[in-house]
């Protein structure tokens, strides 16, 4: 199966500029790496219709922005003497949602619109969550659905730790 290299080789210049490498290559060209997290116990989440994360308010925009860890979305891993920069899929997915939100409310077409929509589509397929949600009149009833999740706080903790270590290495 051919996968765009960009999926693995995200060139992340500041937060606003998510760009993928243009070239395509086979998935085997790069190994899949994971951000090491501490503990992976499942956690409960109640999916509800949040009053937060408004589409088009200043507070809403801040809440979306605060989904990024304090050092932003980048993860820096040492490979011997060189630092390889990554993002974590979690932050890439969340950032993409915010890019789509900004794109919608500003009515300005972001060059990342198509990338983000497809990236979220593939991410959702990849998770392939098979838990059942109640349905009424042919619609999914999304109020107060309980589900079990990976503990996303461990990914945030690992990102904060990684950022602190990267700052220390760079005397920042
Ligand atoms: C978001 O708010 C701005 C400023 O009030 C407005 O110009 C824009 O049309 C709004 N976007 C949507 C999708 O409502």
TrEMBL record:
Where does the record place a coiled coil?
Answer: none
The pathway this protein participates in, as annotated, is:
Mycotoxin biosynthesis
Any one Pfam family here would be UstYa
**Entry keywords, A to Z:** Oxidoreductase, Signal
Fetch the PROSITE patterns from UniProt.
PROKAR_LIPOPROTEIN (PS51257)
One annotated GO molecular function:
oxidoreductase activity
Alphabetical GO biological process terms: mycotoxin biosynthetic process
Task: Tell me where the signal peptide lies.
Answer: 1-23
- Family assignment from sequence similarity: Belongs to the ustYa family.
Its recorded name reads Uncharacterized protein
Native organism is Phanerochaete sordida
